[in-house]
Automatic annotation (TrEMBL):
<dbReference type="Pfam" id="PF00005">
    <property type="entry name" value="ABC_tran"/>
</dbReference>
<dbReference type="InterPro" id="IPR017871">
    <property type="entry name" value="ABC_transporter-like_CS"/>
</dbReference>
<dbReference type="InterPro" id="IPR027417">
    <property type="entry name" value="P-loop_NTPase"/>
</dbReference>
<feature type="domain" description="ABC transporter">
    <location>
        <begin position="19"/>
        <end position="260"/>
    </location>
</feature>
<dbReference type="InterPro" id="IPR015854">
    <property type="entry name" value="ABC_transpr_LolD-like"/>
</dbReference>
<feature type="domain" description="SpoVT-AbrB">
    <location>
        <begin position="259"/>
        <end position="302"/>
    </location>
</feature>
<keyword id="KW-0067">ATP-binding</keyword>
<keyword id="KW-0813">Transport</keyword>
<dbReference type="GO" id="GO:0016887">
    <property type="term" value="F:ATP hydrolysis activity"/>
</dbReference>
<dbReference type="GO" id="GO:0022857">
    <property type="term" value="F:transmembrane transporter activity"/>
</dbReference>
<keyword id="KW-0238">DNA-binding</keyword>
<dbReference type="InterPro" id="IPR017911">
    <property type="entry name" value="MacB-like_ATP-bd"/>
</dbReference>
<dbReference type="GO" id="GO:0003677">
    <property type="term" value="F:DNA binding"/>
</dbReference>
<dbReference type="InterPro" id="IPR003593">
    <property type="entry name" value="AAA+_ATPase"/>
</dbReference>
<dbReference type="GO" id="GO:0005886">
    <property type="term" value="C:plasma membrane"/>
</dbReference>
<dbReference type="InterPro" id="IPR007159">
    <property type="entry name" value="SpoVT-AbrB_dom"/>
</dbReference>
<protein>
    <submittedName>
        <fullName>ABC transporter</fullName>
    </submittedName>
</protein>
Length: 303
């Protein structure tokens, strides 16, 4: 539930998309040097949707995830998650947000779990911080671990589990306080393809069964090609999206239709993909024409 304090004013949470970013800017300053990690990023994710976020190194993916996780703050722009205004969080509000609204799974399996605690203790820890009784915590931890297929690992320490098992336990930890949004930063980055598929399946299951909104940052095509929407970030902005529809191919497999869209920001800016620019030698200036049902764009013939 979003709080009703002035620090994080409640929107009508159920009517809004789970995640709304509008013109988000994040500037890192080191002395006289400024790095614009996000440069007016727009993004909207519906409740219960699972999306992948892709983009080249340095595009701003992790910065976006840190802001959504409440561990970093935007320099400008609007970020709302499940009705929480992340630009206006008080210190106490931030703690409540991070504890109860978002769950986070990271790439490094070793960073997701406390090394000297068993799987069961790791999963019980977030609930303990939230004040849930020990008995309820134990029952819930066991249920979550069972559901994620690692019930038999309950008494094991992280180093006694495989990478895939550790990521399943990490997912259980992230789900322990019943978040409405799950953020995963390269969750399959350290896993082989088969195990990556299993983790992806587990993410999809929690999204579908629990209505949890899932945002996965990934370089892994296994992940990005299997979700219905992949958002590409370039130079701190959303540049394009691929929408996919999956249907049964009648032979036990699935048929995928994918369509790529360029994303237009509020000022009407569209990024033309590099391969298009290179193919037609589009450089500084292009010719535009408004047609009845589309816009045409040509290389500048004046050069
Ligand atoms: N704490 C920081 N201080 C200064 N610059 C930063 C900081 N964090 C990120 N940046 C810079 O912001 C830009 C975006 O970084 P970010 O880590 O969000 O990119 P990314 O898309 O996640 O990259 P990768 O795929 O390599 O993880 C980069 O130029 C990066 O160097």
């Amino acid at each position: 539930m979003p709080p009703s304090t002035a620090a994080a004013p409640a929107l009508a949470a159920t009517e809004k998309p789970a995640v709304v970013c509008e013109s988000v800017v994040r500037i890192h300053r080191h002395g006289s040097i400024e790095v614009q990690a996000l440069q007016g990023l727009d993004l909207s994710v519906e409740r219960g949707e699972m999306i992948a976020v892709v983009g080249p190194s340095g595009a701003g993916k992790s910065t976006l995830l840190s802001i959504l996780a409440g561990s970093d703050a935007p320099s400008a722009g609007r970020v709302h998650v499940d009705g929480w205004d992340l630009g206006a969080l008080s210190t106490a509000g931030r703690v409540r947000y991070r504890r109860g609204v978002v769950g986070v799974v990271r790439q490094q399996t070793s960073r997701n779990l406390v090394a000297h605690l068993t799987a069961e203790e790791n999963v019980a820890m977030p609930a303990a911080l939230g004040g849930t009784s020990r008995k309820v915590r134990r029952t819930r931890s066991a249920e979550l671990l069972d559901r994620l297929g690692v019930g038999d690992c309950a008494r094991r320490l992280p180093h006694e589990m495989s990478g895939g098992q550790q990521q399943r336990v990490a997912l259980a930890v992230a789900l322990a306080n019943g978040p409405s949004v799950l953020l995963a930063d390269e969750p399959t980055g350290e896993l082989d393809t088969t195990t990556a598929h299993e983790i992806l399946g587990a993410l999809r299951t929690v999204s579908r069964e629990d209505g949890i909104t899932v945002v996965v940052v990934t370089h892994d095509a296994t992940v990005s090609d299997s979700v219905e929407r992949t958002v590409a970030i370039r130079d701190g902005r959303t540049s394009s999206e691929v929408l996919r529809t999956f249907s049964d191919d009648g032979a036990g497999g699935s048929h995928v239709v994918a369509q790529e869209y360029a994303v237009m920001d509020r000022a009407g800016r569209v990024q033309i993909p590099r391969e298009y620019r290179e193919a037609l030698e589009l450089t500084r200036r292009v010719r535009l024409a408004l047609e009845a049902d589309h816009v045409s764009l040509w290389p500048d013939g004046e050069r």
